[in-house]
């Protein structure tokens, strides 16, 4: 949803700047997908009342944002660039985009908290299962039949808990690697690539074996490297907690593509 909304905004901005039909078409195609994506998000969180409230707020703010896009494009078609620019500046002061970002961040943070709580419960279950195994071993010395039954029960429970934990980790890994439209990867504190998802391989052209251990500055243009942009990006992310920009990036084959880049510290490492 966030990506599609960004795509709609990008198409609208391009059309506002050059008035060409390609940008208008890109904006309209992205905007048409957004209601369905919000409804899908609502269905995915139907068992969470707090998330349902956030989805309702998100639907309202996104509706307002799409209406602003429509006003901008209508003004560009009827009054030209200056008319559209004036309306866009007025709309920007309303803070709709910032409220959307806040709501989306709250939704993601809530889901992350739920996942963390479930992992803690799984770890507690595993510890209790291990304790039960030890107790069962002592009891088995005096009451063999009862001890054996308890041991089998505890081991079975421990295996189920471990299987659930592995399943959770596998799902998270599959989720990251299934995001084929985004390059998601980790950097060490010096800016060297630590891991690499399939989206990064598809977009940038490097396999994981080729790029892991290499410095991420190779994705920047020669002009940006000479200007020290990669290092400043790392420093900004470390200092402020986030670095975001739109700029040209370079694939393995030397071709350039326009990218929306986000750098955030994660624990002791940084991700892009």
Q: Can you walk me through this structure?
A:
This protein is an alpha+beta fold and 272 residues long. The chain has helices at residues 2-18, 21-44, 49-79, 81-92, 96-142, 144-178, 198-204, 208-211, 222-226, 229-240, and strands spanning 185-187, 193-196, 243-250, 256-266, 269-271. It is built from ten helices and five strands. It has a five-stranded antiparallel sheet, covered by helices on one side. Strand 4 (256-266) and strand 5 form a beta hairpin. Helix 1 (2-18) packs antiparallel against helix 2.
Largest sheet: 5 strands, antiparallel
Mean pLDDT comes to 88
Helix content: over 70%
Unreliable runs: none
Strand content: 5-15%
What is the overall number of helices? Answer: 10
Order of helices and strands: HHHHHHEEHHHHEEE
Q: Which secondary-structure class do the elements indicate?
A: alpha+beta
Total strand segments = 5
The radius of gyration over CA amounts to 25 Å
Distance between the termini: 19 Å
Question: What brief labels describe this structure?
Answer:
272 residues; alpha+beta; five-stranded antiparallel sheet; 10 helices; extended
Quick structural summary:
The chain has 272 residues and is an alpha+beta fold. Helix content is 71%, strand content 11%.
Question: What is the fold's blueprint, element by element?
Answer:
Layout: H1 2-18, H2 21-44, H3 49-79, H4 81-92, H5 96-142, H6 144-178, E1 185-187, E2 193-196, H7 198-204, H8 208-211, H9 222-226, H10 229-240, E3 243-250, E4 256-266, E5 269-271
Antiparallel strand pairs: 1-2, 1-5, 3-4, 4-5
Helix pairs in contact: 1-2, 1-3, 2-3, 3-4, 3-5, 5-6
